[in-house]
Amino acid sequence: MAPRLAPMSNLSREDVAHVAMLARIQLEEHELDTLAGQLDQIVGWVGQVNEVAAADVPPMSHPLPLVNVTRPDEVRPSLSAEQALANAPDPEDGRFGVPRILDEE
Predict the structure, then answer these.
(1) Calpha distance 55→38 (Å, rounded)
(2) pLDDT value of position 1
């Protein structure tokens, strides 16, 4: 079945500009009209999925059952702090020193 295409967008240029601003995406003026139509199609397709979803189908995050494949935590011999920091370019108080990325103390 071919997807239904909306002949005219229900999303305005202002809607697209607002979503782009929230997503911190810079768009050119000519992109707003194109994306309005595309986003409107996506919203329509999501609506189609909602129409198909049956009440007797439980919500799921994955179509197949998942099994935990992690190993159990076991204490094993490893490097000491001094050995781990031996080649670190800027050790600081027994830790790896990294450049500050926030202006907070």
Answers:
(1) 29
(2) 45
> Token pair for residue 87?
């080649």
pLDDT per residue as tens digits for the range 1-55: 444 444 445 888 888 899 999 999 999 988 888 888 888 888 888 888 877 767 7
Q: What is the pLDDT of residue 101?
A: 84
- What domains can you pick out in the chain, each with its CATH number? 13-52 (1.10.20)
- Residue 105 is predicted with a pLDDT of 62
User: To the nearest 10°, the Cα dihedral for 29, 35, 39, 45?
Assistant: 160
Give the DSSP letter of residue 52: H
14 vs 11, 18, 36, 97, CA distance in Å?
Answer: 8, 6, 9, 45
> Closest Cα partner for 12 from 45, 41, 43, 40?
40
Please provide residue 95's backbone torsions phi and psi, each rounded to the nearest 5 degrees: -135, 165
